[in-house]
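#struct-help
A.M.: can someone run this one for me? Single chain, 89 residues.
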Amino acid sequence: MSTNTIIAIAVVSTLGLGIIIHSWLHKIIKFKMDESSIVQHFREKTPSGSVTLETLAKSAALPEKRTLEVCQKSTQLSSETNGLWKLNG
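D.P.: on it. Structure tokens below:
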């Protein structure tokens, strides 16, 4: 193989890896930012109570579907039997 071919393969591989890492980091950072806005609602507005998903979505300025995804994946939030969410700890 020629030097140009090796360089081209290395550049394409590096770009592919960079794109994969970028999308992975973007997903993690977006989740943490959304989770933070939801947790902030509890700390500022309802520190000791439970809140509906709709209220959390409005407060965090997120769609209800995204709010539900974040709440379900978060270790800082937990669901109660009647559909309300609360802050752990």
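A.M.: thanks! The longest strand covers residues 84-87.
D.P.: also worth noting: Helices lie at 3-44, 53-60, 64-73.
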